[in-house]
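Contributing: when you submit paired examples, paste them exactly as shown. First protein:
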Amino acid sequence: MKSSLHKVIFLFSFLVLIGCKKNESTPEIKSEIGQNSIEYASGLSIKKFTGYSVVKVTNPWPDAGKDYTYVLKEKDGVVPDSLKSYTTIQIPLQTIVVTSTTNIPFLEMLDVENNLVGFPHTDYVSSEKTRKLIDKGSVKNVGQNEKLNIEQLIELAPNLIVTFGVDNNNPMLDNLQKSGLKVLIQADWMEQSPLGKAEWIKLYGALFGKEAQAKELFDKIVTSYNEAKKLVASKKATSTVLYGSMYMDQWYVAKGNSWVAQFMADAKADYLWANLEGTGSLGLSFEKILDKAKTASVWIATGSFKSLTELEKSNPHYSQFDAFKTKNIYTFENKFGATGGTIYYELAPSRPDLVLKDYIKIFHPELLPSYEFTFASKLN
């Protein structure tokens, strides 16, 4: 009887011990499985589970009517019934089509550019590495974003097409899906945080089974960005800044919560429209711009101008600004790839640390005396 009792007590104690160990280990498991790995991007969520990951894209365009959820299924992974209504994508991808030049650096950083089989309007691609693939025919020109060549895409049969929408009317997206092609909506262009844009590399890490490499690359960018911010931590914003240029009869200034304005704030500059709430830009008349920014000490001009002469020829009234008279005008948009693609548009979203250093070099040149601009150019 005693022997039986001892066995029962021992068995009970053993089960309790095992139960305690399981409970103790649960928090550790939760920290690795099912937790969102995204820290800065507001429109992206990636949760990894055993055998699959769940990707959610929110706010894919202004006033979007819906969010998008995708299940990335690994080989032999089992997707729960509760997720089977969402688009399932087999990973790691072997072939991909992307439709924005901002995606090209992510592929190259992860060493998967050879998996790219199609891109719309390939002349826009600036990177020398991907241009070589285009030139030898490995990457096909699949039309233009609004009019992708569906017949060609069906023939290419990529594992996935990563594209984007600009409003709630996207007939091209519907046509791609009706053709049996896998489509994923990306919204990196909607991010206003510099690091938020760059963090979309983690999406490509998940798609190609390179999550660890994507995290390592992104963490280095975060470190580089924060180290640049430390350079100006004790500095005062002494440069008053005019941004933009005339387009038709409007001058578009970046709003205070925009990507551009964030860079200027982090670089410790006094951007004259920093208090204008919202993201994106606002169109104003030349008279309003001149009234507020005539005495600005620095002008960050939009456009591909190569010289002050070329800038003045586009609009003689530009010479009224003090920054023009003191020749203190810069642009980020006059460096191009071999076929005319703008390097800044392609690379800047994935390397905000380099953009920030350019701005710091403009506003506080003494802090980076030997640094050479990556994107910016001073007009002479």
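Second protein:
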Amino acid sequence: MTPKVKAFFDGQTFTVSYVVQEPEGSACAIIDSVLDFDHASGRTTTHAADKVAEYIGSEDLKVEWILESHVHADHLSAAPYLQQKLGGKIGIGAQIVAVQDTFGKVFNEGTEFQRDGSQFDALFSEGDSFHIGQMRGDVLHTPGHTPACLTYVIGDAAFVGDTLFMPDFGTARCDFPGGSSKTLFESIQKILSLPDETRIFVGHDYKAPGRDEYAWETTVGEQKALNVHIGQGRSIEEFVEMRDARDATLAMPRLILPSLQVNMRAGQMPPADEQGDVFLKVPINKL
């Protein structure tokens, strides 16, 4: 089965969100939505999410799922906003509980912050499946970038989040808490075991040197042959050495602190204070 896929590229965070539709029906899922956040002012807007909602309205689609590939560290999720407008259930990997435990401590959230994934409507594990209308989706647990990373395989399409980028850009970083370059290598092998013609849709694109256009669709075959980090049969030892050395040079993402606090809550802001004001925390020397 070949689902219809509509991509929405957000130039502020270099994130690609997707609407995945059954080929002969109106049911759809949204994958990795974006809530606009201005770090300097602390203001949120919904321009990126509204583009997705407008498309769904114009095509008369029915949202059944709002899926997260992982707890993003580089943008805020618009899942609650889109759910309120369009319906659908919010899903993420079951290992969200490990992420919530880790960052609940980092942000000193206290006992009122539930670390059981209950903020989400569905928690997926390896081998789980779901349906978008008559179209089946299958879940691969692909950790390494984060413990909760998933790949959603829907028909001939695989939505890999940050696990893989375009072949000329490589693979995800593994230096966040709970990340592992060895685990990422093993997860990527799981993706590369899919048929070569499987379409791969990546979660970000930063335009590799020498490429003028943003891109987000490739194939398993292209990744196996051309990925600059993992292609042509690179060994796990070579990959781990390269990935760990590269990660040691990377700065933290600009929006990591607000993103984690919001995304581990399924896109909800932290609870308001008695005056109705919402605050995000800045832990010092924690990351």
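If you have annotations for the second protein, write them as plain sentences, like these:
Residues 17 and 32 are 5 Å apart (CA to CA).
The two ends are 43 Å apart (CA to CA).
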